[in-house]
Design goal:
The protein is of the alpha+beta class and 138 residues long. It is built from five helices and four strands; from the N terminus they run ββαααββαα.
Length: 138
């Protein structure tokens, strides 16, 4: 059976007791909904793409400066394991920890913020590098 295709999300801001579409495309899609029609809304605060970009840029610089991992991806996986952002998987009768996803779909902004703080603390402890060090070097 073919999977029903989902429409992309509509992003909105709260103003008083109203939700206002963030961009023209969002407002246009809202306008297509019949006046008075009941709609379902799943509230998920949006992730902040700049924070995710900062994280990956920072770990890239740490990896290049320290040679601690062969790739940014490998370093990212190790950070997730070290900070406990993992999922349990049963493998050959044993529970093992695998790195969890930090993708927008899998992790909300609040959880990513906690992960980011843990990651920065781990990097500072283990490698003695903080974001300000990278900014000064740039």
């Amino acid at each position: 059976m073919a999977k029903k295709s989902e429409s992309p999300p509509i992003y909105a801001f709260r103003r008083g007791d109203c939700l206002i579409g963030e961009m023209n495309a969002d407002r246009e899609r809202i306008a297509e909904i019949a006046e008075g029609e009941r709609i379902r809304i799943e509230v998920r605060t949006g992730r902040i793409p700049k924070r995710l970009a900062f994280y990956f840029a920072f770990i890239r610089e740490v990896r290049k400066a320290t040679g601690c991992a062969p790739t940014d991806k490998a370093f990212h996986q190790a950070i997730k394991l070290e900070t406990g952002f993992t999922e349990d998987v049963i493998f050959r009768g044993h529970i093992i920890k695998v790195p969890a996803s930090v993708s927008f779909e899998e992790m909300d902004e609040q959880t990513f913020g906690a992960f980011l703080q843990e990651a920065l603390a781990f990097i500072a402890r283990e490698y003695g590098i903080v974001p300000e060090d990278v900014e000064r070097a740039a």
